[in-house]
Amino acid sequence: MECMEKSHQINAMKSKCDNKININEEKKLVDANLSILRSTKMDTTPYQDDVEKKIVLLKHLLEKDPKAADLKWSLFISACNTYRYDTCLRPFPPMYIKNECKDIEALRKTVELIPPLAVIFRELHEPNVYANYGPAIDLLHWVLIRLRDPYIKSISKENYDSVLRKVPSEMLVAAPNLIFQIASAKQSTAEEKWKYNGQGYSTLYAYHGSRLENFHSIIHYGLQQNMCKNSLFGKGIYLSSELGVSLPYSPIGYGWGGSVLGSELSCVALCEFINHPTIKKHNSAIRIQNTLSESVPDKYYLVTNSDLVRIRYLLVYSQEVHPTRNNESSGLLDWFRQHKLLTFMLGYVILLASVGLTHNKQVEKYYRLFVQKTGLD
How many Å apart are CA 70 and CA 98, to the nearest integer? Predict the structure, then answer.
């Protein structure tokens, strides 16, 4: 009997220990799940900023430098609408990433509904603006405010010559319509790294041409040697001391129909780079025999390390540059430009209606009466 009682006591103690172990394991599992939930919330909260704060920041930016905001948004739209969006649209808006997949169709639908920025600026002063333009405000805030390094700044026309004189051109080329500065934010890691790499070396300026849809990624990630497809004289970033050499590599591209800068744009980057020994440049003493990679043509630079290059300015060419206005007529005209197909269909309906009315007897009767009373007959 005593042996049986001792056996029961031992089993009871084991059961208690097992329960404690199970409880501890469950507690650890719950803590782990809570930790995952907290980390998930921490990952998403930066994009759930206060609505009022978003509105205030957007109003300030659109009032302070509307053309710079328009250009940044146009570059984003160009990258969004290209079939190469997977490489051009970087960074990608995180609110349109679902289950690690980019929902480009949902993003494009939101973009299509966004009116000209002048209209948005006016609507931001209305009390119910977020109810009407919630997705638009969230996306505009992410593109124009959250992507703050680097930021785009308009250059006044009187300073255009001083910018272009950084690389004196011997070729006759058309002057850009607009010039924007690409400025680094305070405590920029990329800028500090560039300055560190440039210790003990001088710097030079040169141009780089690329397609319009590439500039959203170029501005935020810089020029990357692995992304440059042209490798005639070796792999790397191709720069030129002549604007006329880089300009053909920047064909006119379609940006945004609601832009005051014009829907068709072309951009050339004016870059500052460290004059490092690894940079290939033209050397007339080198005679090319078996390979073209030993030298580059005159007016060219070939940079094989992307950390040596920083974009300082964007030269913008546009077919049509409209003044920035916040009135109704400007918004209506921009809306018609943005919705050309709908405008054409509306005009066609009006034309059919007018043709039908001209053959209506009642209309003819009132028309004759109007002509008689006004004395036009």
Answer: 28
